[in-house]
Amino acid sequence: MGTAAGSAFDTETLRRAIEGNTGNNLLSLYTDDAEIRIVDRDNQPSHPTVLHGRGQIAELLDDIYSRDMTHKLDQCVVQGDRAAYSESCEYADGTRVLAESMVTLRDGKIADQLIIQAWDE
């Protein structure tokens, strides 16, 4: 991990932000006009959840980090202005969630993100 050559995106900072206790550090890694698209069982590819801007992203992160669960960055690859990473999460009751993200970077921050997630039912 670490900073990719030619990029200001630091994967160790991403790890600390994901594995932290609040979404504030993670939110700081997004551009003001960032967009997130989320695809899962309830939000299928033709109708993903779409969040625009740090305000909506903050609401999502506040919700996620208010839950009794742990988060772990499993893998991250950065190449130029693109990055991909895997995140695994586990609720206190043992329910697991896996999320895969593909991001576009601008000036070392996340400008666009596609999240594909699945969870135990």
TrEMBL record:
Residues 17-112 form the SnoaL-like domain. Transmembrane segments: none annotated. Gene3D superfamilies: 3.10.450.50. InterPro entries: NTF2-like_dom_sf, SnoaL-like. This is Nuclear transport factor 2 family protein. It comes from Streptomyces bangladeshensis.
